[in-house]
């Protein structure tokens, strides 16, 4: 899979870090791997990776602070120019695990801000660069090698799979993110930009906890090999599991 | 259908007003019909209705202002006491019709506040009264005559029906509301409180516009006779159309 450039948010830890790390080690590796994080100064693991791989660029993206999106767009534009940005991977997210009894309005707001409004506004900011990538690609149709927005969702955000209730902020935000993915997939189709929600499964990260069934390495290998390398028109707008299987909604 | 008491938000216009109006005229009519609205002083049509039907009580509920929820709970408690509140109908909502190019973070926030966080927090406030209604009902199982939370959703909030993209704030909020309904239906089941999202169809209101296919009268007759009077365990947690048909997600 030859992806010319990719930007990953929430790249300082968990699945975001693993994505950057695997793309850095890939052969061929993208020309530019933007590792977006809130606080580049404190991102020690990313700094190590960037020293070893000069195509890894640490970039400040503070979800919720739209001015940081514009600065990031300028920085990426300087590198990629008319080639545009091939993949925007909206990976940054939080998990507020709150019951009906305990959930507050403020927890609902914060989760929606990070998991839904952030990806939407960041995609708006990078849309002109994604469009350039699609326009100038030798590929036709829809693919991650032409141009794509990938939104990291969760099985917890599937209404039909909700058999245990609870987790109000996260469930509501992730299903809303899946809806936004669907609208993007329709609105971007004539531009040649794909939009897909990716369900990473249950992964051993800070967010998934130690009892999870997958290691970050297994999960991201699945997302790269089974999902990103293979999907096209059929998966556009859908929720796709790390195994490559469509599972919604 | 004998519903002892019902509270309807957004009752000063559109489907909310029609709900109050039809329940007021019903035989038997509920003992208490609470018509929740942001500004009772300006609710002239509701005032007329309340003069004619003494069981219609206008009550201030300003979605987003949680202190108004507590005052409303106190007011309802004084009337119903241990009989509790039978049905909470979260009908108040807004429709922000915004494209990808035009949508702003603030529009996303406002829609989520009114259409998702409002119903959730209002349901939390009235939960003890709903539980009392369920506990003290002669009915067993799940029904609108025992105890129910009904959330007014929209076909625009169904991801699988989204074939035209766009409308980001409203689509995202309504599907999130459907998720919350699903979690409530699971969390409340042992209490005997039903939770259902209701899809009213496309109705000639301020929100639906003049080209809509249904009159408010037809829509609310459908919701009362096909949905509220009939549904039970099977519909719990689902999206039910005004026709009585389950259609999700």
The stretches of 5 or more residues of chain A where confidence is low (pLDDT under 50) are none
Number of domains of chain A: 1
Task: Give the number of helices of chain A.
Answer: 6
Helical/strand content category of chain A: alpha/beta
What's the order of the H and E elements of chain A? EHEHEHEHEHEHE
Question: Quick one: overall form of chain A?
Answer: globular
CATH superfamily of chain A: NAD(P)-binding Rossmann-like Domain
Mean pLDDT across all amino acids of chain A: 97
The largest sheet of chain A, given as strand count, sense and whether it forms a barrel, is: 7 strands, parallel
> Judging by the overall fold, what is the CATH architecture of chain A?
3-Layer(aba) Sandwich
The helicity of chain A comes to 40-55%
Strand order of the largest sheet of chain A: 3-2-1-4-5-6-7
Name the quaternary structure: homodimer
Structure description:
The structure is a homodimer of 249-residue chains. With 249 residues, chain A is of the alpha/beta class. Chain A has one domain (5-241): Rossmann fold (3-Layer(aba) Sandwich). Chain A has helices at residues 14-25, 44-52, 66-80, 105-136, 168-187, 216-228; strands spanning 5-8, 32-37, 56-60, 87-90, 148-152, 194-199, 239-241. In chain A, helix 1 packs across helix 6 and helix 3 runs parallel beside helix 4. The two termini of chain A are 28 Å apart. The model of chain A has no long low-confidence stretch (mean pLDDT 97). Chains A and B meet through helix 4 and helix 5 of A and helix 4 and helix 5 of B.
